[in-house]
Design brief:
The complex is a heterodimer of chains A (about 675) and B (about 400). Chain A is an alpha+beta fold and about 675 residues long. Chain A has 18 helices and 27 strands. Chain B is mainly alpha-helical and about 400 residues long. The longest helix of chain B is centred in the middle third of the chain and has 36 residues. The chains are: A alpha+beta (about 675), B mainly alpha (about 400). At the A-B interface, strand 1, strand 24 and helix 16 of A face helix 2, helix 3, strand 3, strand 4 and helix 6 of B.
Chain lengths: ~675, ~400
């Protein structure tokens, strides 16, 4: 026995050494090891809005556009990657449509918002990727009312049959060639989703005998960098998108936005859906600056999108705000903050103070470095608005008009560019034109620049005109130097701004006088919302202009302070000079911010002398303070959409407070993965 | 004693360093982080951030540095850049992080292609650290600046703005809890198994078992909302002071920010914390007293005819309090750290809320500053407790 034992030990050590040697010796020796190619640094996450005209006949082909460049050009077709095997169940459009017909979305809404009336519940229903009432919503879409009969017929047609003598119902699962109609379904572990997902699972089982294997994963997994959606690790996945006035959608539905291993998982078309007509339309809709053409292209897209049923829109979430009964002129809107018109608010009993409840303290009053909703709303009090965005659209406020191509406020000119000229590339970068650089020409075609070529490209120029009378709280008029300072600081990488894409796409700004300037973009840069991209490039007025005349406590003039120091300046972060309806007079950290009416506000001194923002992190506490009169207004994030809303609704019904319910721009949907890895 | 103190202080420094490493590591290993907000924005379907934007944001949070470099910069404020000695610069090219990770394309024999991150395309060197903002190091008392919740503002300002509220709430509630706890403990021990003992045992256990958020919400419902609706004198549901004057039946108009206003806001959170903490003190004192009351010297004292009150206070209580001193060591960090849940329920602007807020919003430098202070106070508490032993018990000598 002894010699055998000794031999085994030696054999084990030898194996260990050999294994180590093989591992260290390089992968080339193993027949299964991959070939390694070094990648050039690139822009894997940059998502540029390509700039082409809406000519669908000459549109760029929706072939996958690799966002990274290989060091060596390859002539042959790209090798097959993963996600080439159609999903055995979900690749069949009839099954996907059946899932839609078998889902009673009203019941899903009822499960989470049972305190709403049937009409209010209906108002949350989604049939497309934009909500009811949106300017881009098409009327030629396929809708999927709750119709289990239709759903069952489609499943029968697709070959998924019931066991003999059975009816659709729980415990009965359809089969096809011995395979069960069983689909994995993943969503987050939020209580809200656990509630409606349970009902969804029951509906598919009871109505159509589709078995759903439900999993609730942490958000960090579902939305993780290398997990969940980004790796397309799902069959059915439910989550939410946030809608905006501009529907966008290219990164979600275009063929070249499908995350794959070979493009380093770039893109958000998690379904792997490539419908060329839809893809061309969504790209064209995002590339034109003409609203009518955009509506036409979005209609084409939605027709395909709803017919293919690759993503089942369910419902918009609910948002609620509450206010005391004495408050008038309060506007509750899905896409605009309540504070947008705070200068117009009035109190019927002539009280002198309004208290707003915020769930979070603003991290800074300088909204360039924070775009949190609380900071933006607080900034509304101390900065004029260039525009508002009510009801999924835009309206000028401090601008004389929204400058569009149609009204002559903007121009789109064709210019010749050649080597050395700065252009905006297909990948969304500012770059000198050189051989190999890809750009979109004036015809909307993607072209690769070659030595000695001249390319005709489109160049956008937009002139913003502000109304007369904009004034700082100290009585100093807002002037050209203030806009110049804003343009310089907002685009300085040291300022702490997170997104400089718009800045980088500008060629120059021509300041005409104290109330107007023209922004000229690099050839190729076209932003669908160009008419709101002022030097502030945001909706908060206190970064439209900075007080160039302000002298700081240390004796320096604000214009002389480097951008890197701005975030630490008390005169910027904690007590900025106001050009809005109110001035900030006190900030008790962790508790409240106190504002007083600005007599120099361009639209006139507000009727309510004092506004207080009270920080209340806990929703129960916020509601208690509303009901006991310590707080007058609870905004959306503070009130949430949980059971506290029901308490507030009941108080509203009893006449104690005003309650405003809105369909949120955030909407729930179920994505269907069309391929297996 | 001097030797003991020197040895203990050296040990404390080592423990502080080790616990700081562990706390810092755990915080950064936890899921989420400051980049989540930007990832979610990428998920929004709109215009994404460029690679340069992301690299700049990562640099702001120091996430482009290797963990060890990140920790030492936070802990002792080093390295700040290349080392310059007599005009000569050293280690300028030493890599201390990676701004843009490298990527490798893998082509598998079956035709699959995959891109994975590997290596570094744009390293961060010591030279790149020059000019970056860095604190002098938390070890030397510089907490640095907040990254998220009070962006670019000193953390010390944040802490000082909330410290008085936490000290007031925790100080008073702890004092009351100890006061009532000791009295109840003594009385229960001297009347063991009496009706009072049973009632107090039940009540204090209910207090210890009730979650503070539940108890707090009940109090708010009863003494704030229902009382106000019924037209009775009521207590404000939350905050430290009111936003404007208000009328309370029997009390009249209460001026916002007045001492009475503060007192009315203080009552409920203080009552919750006192009630839920009485149990631990009363049970401890009761057990300790019961043990001492059975000792021979107590029996002797009684046999000598010493008055019962004197026996309890002078002979029994003094000895029963010796183990009690160990519990007091735990008070120091508690006074600072606050009671996060109670503060949240009553919207009390204390340090407990600040800790929750900093963790929820991934402001790790603020969270680490609070954790660090708690660690230091805990160790100081232990030291004081050891020294106190020698005071209350002459038999103990520290060498």
């Amino acid at each position: 026995m002894r010699p055998v034992s000794f031999s085994l030990t030696r054999l084990f050590i030898l194996t260990l050494i050999l294994t180590t040697l093989v591992a260290c010796g390089g992968a080339a020796t193993s027949p299964d090891a991959p070939v390694r190619e070094t990648m050039a640094p690139a822009e894997p996450t940059a998502v540029a809005e390509a700039t082409v005209e809406p000519d669908t006949t000459t549109e760029t082909t929706p072939e996958p556009e690799p966002t990274m460049q290989e060091e060596e050009e390859e002539e042959e077709e790209p090798p097959p990657g993963s996600f080439t095997t159609p999903h055995p169940i979900l690749s069949d459009v009839r099954v996907r449509q059946a899932i839609a017909y078998c889902t009673d979305r009203t019941e899903l809404i009822q499960s989470v918002y049972n305190y709403l009336s049937p009409e209010e519940q209906q108002g949350l229903l989604m049939d497309s990727f934009v909500p009811q009432g949106h300017w881009a919503l098409a009327d030629n879409i396929t809708t999927y009312p709750f119709d289990p009969e239709q759903g069952n017929a489609l499943l029968e047609e697709a070959g998924w049959t019931l066991p003999d003598g059975t009816e659709p119902g729980p415990g009965v699962v359809r089969t096809r060639e011995g395979e069960q109609l069983s689909i994995g379904f993943v969503t987050t572990d939020a209580q809200f989703r656990q509630t409606w997902a349970t009902v969804f699972e029951q509906q598919l089982a009871e109505n159509c005998s589709i078995q759903i294997i439900r999993t609730h994963a942490p958000g960090s997994w579902l939305f993780g960098d290398a997990t969940g959606l980004r790796r397309r690790d799902f069959e059915l996945a439910a989550f939410a998108w946030v809608g905006e006035p501009d529907p966008k959608g290219r990164t979600l539905y275009a063929c070249n936005e499908i995350p794959l291993p070979e493009n380093n998982w770039a893109g958000q078309n998690y379904m792997g859906w490539c419908n060329e007509t839809a893809s061309r339309a969504i790209i064209a809709a995002n590339n034109t600056l003409d609203r009518d053409e955009r509506i036409r292209q979005y209609a084409i897209f939605q027709e395909e999108f709803t017919r293919d049923m690759v993503s089942l829109p369910l419902f918009q979430r609910l948002e609620a705000q509450a206010a005391s009964n004495n408050l008038v002129n309060f506007i509750s809107d899905p896409t605009e903050y309540m504070t947008a018109n705070i200068g117009e608010w009035e109190l019927t009993d002539n009280a002198d103070t309004i208290v707003l409840g915020f769930s979070q303290e603003p991290s800074s009053m300088w909204v360039l470095v924070t775009d949190a909703a609380v900071a933006t709303q607080a900034a509304d009090l101390i900065g004029f608005r260039a525009f508002t965005k009510y009801n999924y659209d835009y309206q000028p406020v401090a601008l004389t008009r929204l400058p569009t191509i149609e009204n002559g406020g903007a121009t789109l000119e064709e210019i010749e560019v050649s080597a050395g000229d700065m252009v905006w590339t297909v990948d969304g970068e500012a770059m000198e034109l050189a051989p190999g650089v890809e750009v979109i020409n004036a015809e909307g075609e993607t072209v690769t620049y070659a030595e000695g070529d001249t390319i005709t490209m489109s160049q956008l120029s937009v002139t913003f005109e502000y109304i007369e009378g904009l004034t700082w709280e100290d009585g100093e008029p807002v002037k050209q130097a203030d806009f110049e300072l804003a343009a310089r600081i907002n685009c300085d990488p040291d300022s702490g701004a997170s997104d400089l894409t718009i800045c980088n796409s500008r060629q120059n700004i021509d300041f005409i006088n104290d109330t107007s300037y023209t922004i000229t973009y690099l050839p190729g840069a076209q932003w669908p919302e160009y008419f709101i991209y002022t030097v502030g490039a945001g909706i908060s007025g206190n970064r439209e202009a900075y007080p160039s005349h302000q002298v700081l406590s240390d004796g320096r003039n604000l214009t002389d302070v480097p951008a890197a120091e701005w975030g630490t300046l008390l005169e910027i972060a904690e007590r900025p000079l106001s050009n809005g309806p109110y001035t900030l007079v006190e900030w008790q950290k962790g508790q409240r911010l106190v504002f007083e009416a600005n007599p120099n506000f361009f639209a006139g001194e507000p009727a309510v002398p004092t506004v207080i923002i009270q920080i209340v992190t806990d929703t129960n506490q916020a509601v208690a303070q509303l009901l006991t009169g310590n707080i007058d207004v609870l905004e959306k994030a503070t009130l949430g959409a949980g059971p506290e809303v029901q308490t507030v609704i009941e108080a509203g019904e009893a006449g104690r407070v005003q309650v405003f319910l809105e369909a949120s721009p955030t909407w729930e949907h179920v994505d269907m993965n069309l391929f297996l890895r | 004693m001097t030797t003991f103190l020197i040895r203990r202080i050296v040990q404390m420094i080592i423990v502080i360093i080790l616990s700081s490493i562990v706390a810092y590591g755990l915080l950064y290993l936890a899921p989420g982080g400051p980049m989540v907000e930007f990832q979610q924005r990428q998920m929004g379907g709109g215009r994404g951030l460029s690679q340069a934007d992301l690299a700049r944001i990562r640099a702001r949070f120091e996430l482009d540095l290797h963990p060890v470099t990140r920790f030492t910069r936070w802990f002792v404020g080093l390295p700040r850049g290349p080392i310059t000695i007599a005009g000569q610069t050293f280690l300028a090219d030493l890599q201390v992080g990676c701004a843009v990770p490298g990527q490798v394309r893998l082509r598998y024999p079956d035709g699959r292609v995959e891109i994975v991150e590997e290596g570094c395309d744009q390293p961060v060197t010591m030279a790149d650290l020059e000019g970056r903002r860095v604190s002098r190091g938390i070890l030397f008392g510089d907490f640095g600046r907040s990254q998220v919740i009070a962006r670019d503002q000193p953390i010390s300002t944040l802490i000082w703005s909330r410290l008085p509220y936490t000290l007031a709430l925790m100080g008073v509630s702890t004092f009351l809890a100890i006061l009532f706890g000791v009295l109840i403990g003594i009385y229960s021990a001297t009347r063991q198994y009496s009706r009072f003992d049973y009632i107090m045992t039940t009540v204090t256990f209910v207090g210890a078992s009730l979650p503070s958020f539940f108890f707090g919400i009940i109090l708010i419902l009863v003494f704030a909302i229902w009382a106000k609706e019924a037209g009775l004198p009521y207590l404000p549901p939350g905050n430290a002071t009111a936003n404007r004057n208000y009328v309370v039946p029997l009390l009249g108009t209460v001026t916002a920010g007045s001492p009475l206003d503060f007192l009315l806001h203080f009552i409920m959170p203080c009552a919750v914390l006192t009630f839920i903490n009485i149990a631990q003190w009363s049970r401890f004192v009761r057990a300790s007293m019961l043990e001492v009351l059975r000792q021979d010297y107590v029996r002797t004292a009684r046999a000598k005819g010493v008055r019962e009150q004197l026996v309890i206070v002078k002979h029994a209580l003094r000895n029963a309090l010796i183990p009690f001193v160990t519990l007091l060591a735990g008070i120091l960090p508690t006074l600072f750290a606050g009671a996060a849940i109670t503060e949240a329920v009553f919207n009390w602007p204390g340090l407990g809320q600040l800790l929750i807020d900093s963790l929820n919003r991934f402001d790790y430098v603020v969270a680490m500053a609070l954790l660090y202070i708690t660690i230091v106070l805990q160790l100081i508490g232990y030291l004081i407790s050891d020294i106190m032993y020698t005071v209350v018990d002459p038999r103990i000598r520290l060498t």
